[in-house]
């Protein structure tokens, strides 16, 4: 990592620790759009706790680093104009190749039975460390996914890859995936795969040890990808500096440097943007989004694929009974949450599938606020109140506001809630250790496919199934969807799965906060991707 930084660079990197007052001397250079402007200043609530998302669960900050430094896996999404002209990844186009760009591949061969996918890799793709992408990197990256058995393994499994032998090196620049079953969404999952792929295996293996054969320690603090950027300096909880990959094969991004500052308070992030000391600010509260618009700043928004929910540990006492979970759902004041927390910037959620995704139906959704029905369900379950701890991450703007509303609503039906606000890293450690009772969390299924979107959080074996819900019929439906090639049949299976979900209700679905990114009028090109992050290579001076 580069430790020899100019004073101007250092000042930008430490905005997160400075008082908001007096920051005008450190103005962002990117937002002005001036000639020669090369640095983009981005403010988020935190830095990633790790750059290795395959060992830290689904954390948005980590996913955003991987998207910018690794670029996903082999293929990528095309970009299209979405509703209102907002640029977006082309995730909704049907067909095996629909919406897919070749990415790091020069040519892709797909067998008629959708069981064999062969990639002829470009010869000009190099990592930020100068190593040329080869079939060995692809094979090693998938071996790592399967060995770690976390989210990367889930995504590989969703592609139909369950064993090392299925990823075959044909020659130095050709790799073949040999699946046991047809996979109509293989390329779509691959384009969204932000978990340990593709890794420069030459660099990673130089830092592997007998105790750490997959270089987890090194990759947690360093990037080794083939994408447009690389991390050059990092101070956890304060800043991340990214430089353009000097060997990047594609069009060079407009901004050669990105300074990512961690600014925990949303009001301070908004103030930096208004003062011209940041070009892009994310995770602003709805009032601050509206204030940004009034200040003639720009806000790029898209309905997105997000699910804000109260995730329940179905192994904890009364929560094992679906009637208790239903009671909690009927107790929730959905309208109050949408109006008082989100001020109309969020939308209701009536299915575990995002509204825009194929297969969505709200036919089985009966949950509207009904306290009497909630109490009756608890009586039917033989439950006369109980204690429940609701955990949430304090760095999220909405969770600290939603938490007391949940506490009050559940108190009305006899459930005594203790609120536990935690720092992001501590919170996620608890979530993925399955040690909590209930969690407020925001999730987003990367792939616009019902089999993937339903399986990633609720299949019994999914790493992200933090509530440990298990339903064998639901699992079978997900497995069938992942290999079913007939669209009509896939949608019918999705409908059955949503019916099971609506009855069992492992998570209480509260709303879709949407994707809202505030930015200077001096930058343009912000594009929505299914991880709801910001890809800096898309951003250009206006």
What does this structure look like?
The chain is built from 17 helices and 23 strands. With about 550 residues, the chain is an alpha+beta fold. The strands form six sheets. The protein has a seven-stranded mixed sheet, sandwiched between helices. It has a five-stranded mixed sheet with strand order 17-16-18-15-19. β3 and β4 (about 85-90) form a beta hairpin. The longest helix is centred in the last third of the chain and has 18 residues, at about 485-505. The model is unreliable at about 1-25 and about 30-35 (pLDDT under 50).
Mean pLDDT score: 91
Radius of gyration: 23 Å
Q: What is the makeup of the main sheet?
A: 7 strands, mixed
Q: Whole-Å distance between the termini?
A: 31 Å
The fraction of residues in strands falls at 15-25%
Strand order of the largest sheet: 10-11-12-1-13-20-14
Count of extended strands:
23
Total number of helices:
17
List the SSEs and their pairings:
Blueprint: H1 7-13, E1 39-44, H2 60-69, E2 76-77, E3 79-81, E4 87-89, E5 100-101, E6 105-110, E7 116-121, H3 135-148, H4 151-159, E8 167-171, E9 174-178, H5 186-191, H6 201-206, H7 216-221, E10 229-235, E11 239-244, E12 257-262, H8 266-275, E13 280-282, H9 286-294, E14 298-302, E15 307-312, H10 322-331, H11 334-341, H12 371-380, E16 386-393, H13 399-411, E17 415-422, H14 424-432, E18 438-443, H15 450-458, H16 472-483, H17 487-504, E19 507-511, E20 515-519, E21 523-524, E22 527-528, E23 540-541
